[in-house]
Amino acid sequence: MLAWNNPKLHTPERRKTWLACEEHREHLSSFLGARGFLKDVVPFADWEGSRADARTEGSGDGGGSGPSAADR
User: What is the reported pTM?
Assistant: First the structure.
């Protein structure tokens, strides 16, 4: 999972995501990195786990602090 944002369009804490296979991860990381957009590369299982943890720590309204469906 490539976490990124465009600093000209997004607030610093905002994260957009790209799911990339092994074959394309390096190329996409380079593409985003060259533009200053790449923030993190995280295994998908870890990303999903952190989203589930955020939902259980939230107020119980299901809002969570992970990316919205529009960000995926």
Answer: 0.63
**Does 68 fall in a domain?**
no
Range of the domain at 51: 2-62
Residue 36 lies inside a defined structural domain of this protein: yes
Geometric angle at alpha carbon 52, from 1 and 62, rounded to 5°? 120
How many domains, the chain?
1
pLDDT digits (tens, 9 = 90+) for 6-54: 999 999 999 999 999 989 999 999 999 999 999 999 988 887 777 666 6
Q: How far apart are CA 26 and CA 7, in angstroms?
A: 21
